[in-house]
Amino acid sequence: MSNLTRWQRSDLSAWPGFGRLFGLRNELDRLFEPFAELTRGSQLLSVWNPAVDVFEDKDSIIVKAELPGMKKEDIDVSLHDGALSVSGERKSEEKFEDAETYRSERFVGRFHRTVTLPSPVSADKVKAQYKDGILMITLPKTEEAKPKQIEVNVA
Q1: Better-predicted residue by pLDDT, 15 or 144
Q2: CATH of 52-91+107-140, one of 2.60.40.790, 2.40.10.220, 2.60.40.10, 3.20.20.70
Q3: How far, in Å, CA of 9 to CA of 11, rounded?
């Protein structure tokens, strides 16, 4: 009869070279640390991509996109080759000509999001609603894509 021994992860620090590799990584992190702060608050180094959620049930696919402060006329929705595209432009609301800007974190400008759909949908039955800054798109599945219940017969 053989004895079972519990597996234990080997100590990576015992392998030659790993200590130097971790040291190099720490040095690189320290080198780029000042630039990380710049990218956190700068619109110049960022792109606005609205948050998107995709849900699927037995009958349809639902896509929700956060588009606060936009007008429905500034939003475009299209369906092509199994992919849903949402694009548009959020415009600057008002200019403060005689004021100094202390902080500007709200993104303005064009955006484009494309979501590959997990199932075929009926393009002629797609519905889009926009309310309180949330765009909700309901994409009904084709009959072929819906799950089918198969009865099991006993012989």
Answers
A1: 144
A2: 2.60.40.790
A3: 6
